[in-house]
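BUG: 3D viewer hangs when loading the predicted structure for this chain

Environment: internal workstation, default settings.
Expected: structure renders.
Actual: progress bar stalls at 90%.

Input used:
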Amino acid sequence: MTALDRSPSAPPPPLELTPWRLASLTARGLLSDRRERRRERAGRHRAGPRRVRDTRLRAPVFVLGAPRSGTTFLGSCIGALPEVSYHFEPRVTKAAARLVYEGTWSEERAARVFRRSYRLLVLAAGEGGRRFVEKNPENCFVVPFLVRAFPDARFVQIIRDGRDVAVSHAEKPWLSASSAGSGRRGRGGQAWGPWARWWVEPERAEEFAAASDLTRTAWSWRRFTEAARTALAQLPPDRVLTIRYEDVARHPQEAAETIAAFFGHPEAPQSLRAALATADPSSIGRWREALDEDGLADVEREAGPLLRELGYEA
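Structure tokens produced before the viewer hung:
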């Protein structure tokens, strides 16, 4: 796999989270969340939601990881636990993470928006009284804020070989140079294309935009993974679970026991075991065939030190 450098046009400005746009994102988010949850239930034949209106957020769990690291799979598996109200990348909090990270919003305002959004999601799902779980990679950069906003929060981080992540991510259009000018935006309002995101080091913004697609996706893996690891290292061990994608894919039943214990189960429920059993280990090591010499050099140059620190050797 290779990716040619291109000269991108000027990046579109980020969307401003005005009160109107917040309301619009909330409405769209509730509808998309409902559709996604309907599909999940249809696939698992899970019992219908309990109509309980208790929307207090007790010990919420945040699933963290770089994009294409297995966060979606892991989050949906955790969603199979009977006591969980699981939500995939809510639009409002996905967009608001940038404003928290940049300090554009005060923590008081951000906390109100996050809490209100989560409560609405639980209420709309009819799952009040269940434990709120959100999967959102952008949360990797706002862990300290989440700890302060939700003092009893817990975190699950999934880590995957950055070379496989770079390959998988480069197959998507989100950071691709070919997406420049497409006018497409992600769930949080970020325009698709090669431009520097808010999580890119400011002094390297031009470098990011001019780099190869593989360099950008390796860059993303490094930044998301490092941000989460650094912040989670400050928390008590009982509030954090770190697992490897490779372990989940190769040993799903052992992973089920580990995840179940973190959620307080003496043994893994069958629903969790069945969900994790669908893991596909064939995706492990795809980089060996997908990356040519130049592509591997791009990934190593940007993410090599962290790969070795995490034990991902050649």
